[in-house]
Inverse folding.
């Protein structure tokens, strides 16, 4: 294997929050994202998501980058840090929870007391996310699975799922 190929593969091995979230929804989507293949950036659902992210919790908004991913809000109280992610709906809540768990996992390695919260203001929902021992195993297994999938030379085959109709790769996959 050439040095160039080795570097390319080690770069792919970095599982970001966005790739993990995509993987939980659709493996093909995660693979395409990892190759920087862009979907339709003007997809109206992405635009709504951006608008929502810009307008919500403006007052105490403080974004930071963790492992190449943006966290919406961080609060610190009594020595405990809370990572807060805001979502426009709970439609993809399982994927959002796993993404947040990855951030908590990465943070926990630094020995900080930390917890997570997903907020869906339009549905008036606040969902606590906790990194328990079982969740740690789940995150670690998921990271290994994703790394394996990302090393593959071709994208997983497409399968129509309910998320396709709002996916930015809709045209890429289905036209
Ligand atoms: S359009 Fe469907 S199959 Fe294609 S990447 Fe998106 S969710 Fe996956």
């Amino acid at each position: 294997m050439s040095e160039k190929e080795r570097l390319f593969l080690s770069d792919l091995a970095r599982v970001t929050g966005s790739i993990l979230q995509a993987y939980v929804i659709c493996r093909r989507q995660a693979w395409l994202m990892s190759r920087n293949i862009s979907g339709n950036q003007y997809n109206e659902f992405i635009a709504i998501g951006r608008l929502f992210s810009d307008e919500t919790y403006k007052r105490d908004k403080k974004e930071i980058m963790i492992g190449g991913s943006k966290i919406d809000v961080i609060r610190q109280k009594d020595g405990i840090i809370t990572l807060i992610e805001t979502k426009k709906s709970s439609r993809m809540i399982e994927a959002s929870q796993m993404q947040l768990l990855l951030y908590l996992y990465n943070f926990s390695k630094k020995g900080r007391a930390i917890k997570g919260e997903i907020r869906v203001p339009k549905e008036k929902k606040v969902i606590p996310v906790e990194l328990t021992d079982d969740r740690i195993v789940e995150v670690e297994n998921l990271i290994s699975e994703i790394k394996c999938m990302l090393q593959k030379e071709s994208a997983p085959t497409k399968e129509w799922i309910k998320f396709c109709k709002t996916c930015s790769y809709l045209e890429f996959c289905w036209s």
User: Anything to note?
Assistant: The chain has one domain: 3-174. Confidence is low (pLDDT under 50) at residues 57-61.
